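Friendly challenge for the regulars: who can give me the structure tokens for this chain first? No prize, just bragging rights.
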Amino acid sequence: MTPPPCYVATALLLLSAASNVASFSHATSAATKSFVIALTREEGKNGKLCKALKSNSNIEQIISSSSSGSAMEVNEIPCIAHADGPDSEILGKTLSSNFDYIAVTSPEAAKVFATAWIDAGRPEIGQVAAVGKATQEALKEYGIEVAFVPSKATAATLVKELPTLEEATNEGRSTSLLYPASAKAQDTLQTGLEDRGFIVTRLNTYDTVTATWTPEEESLAKSTNVACFASPSAVKAWVKNTQHLDCPRALAACIGETSFAACIKNGWREEDIFYPEKPGIDGWAESVADALKILSKDKCNLHRERGEWEEVDSKSNMTHQQRRKSIPALPGGGSSYSTQSQEIGVR
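First reply, four minutes later:
Bragging rights claimed.
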């Protein structure tokens, strides 16, 4: 059987840059023990993380220093899909209003906003504030210049750092801001800026819905050691789609603290979650490396037999099934398990 395109054998790189992450096979050689990583962004949007995993030297070192025959398998298992929000139809005509700022908080929000702007004939707009480098790059692809990016890619940091417009102050009025958002986005940005005196117009321009998994994707999820999350919606969708599966809870590698908080809220233990201090793709890949360190610390032999993990400790010969008896069940699929190795400094 042909190995999957994101399959990493010892001493080999993770992924060819030209590989299509959506076309994975989950076959693994019986002689090979795998670390299995799930990429959960919507279909077609996991390529950047795959590329970052490929170039991460710590991941390569973990794989090469693991027991003979170790490998890493990376699978795209989309947790979310996007749909039109209740305000999607009025976004284009709203752009003709004279807002001082437009706040765009994600690459998907950038796509929705830019499409509406182009369809409206590219009207003159206020200054654009983007949360994060990825959002800024997405806007630039549509020819939209970004005037402000907060020092940290979170809505809370934008609230603290976005300056009021001097022109508005001179005119004796409040700074106005248009916020084209996901219908499921929290109110951190709007309420925070309103508390500072901004006038915020929020439009729920798109919605995030749980993706329906195929039987193959369910099988891939059951074998996953580390699930990568970029949003609370992805976390919730993973829990929903795995709650009926007989499998232990995967470690979580989050893009930032917002997804980390969602994992805590949905039953993960803090020691089973990894995220960078500053959100971004490279830091996200490093969080995956940190999770892999935990998986490899005990030098356990990982087996996949009859659809269940059996984890045999080289010292005690205690199987994972025996250990699970003392671990409380978590909502959303199985129980949480950590090797309890020393804490590393990214949490």
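The chain has 13 helices and 13 strands. The longest strand covers residues 199-210. Your move, everyone else.
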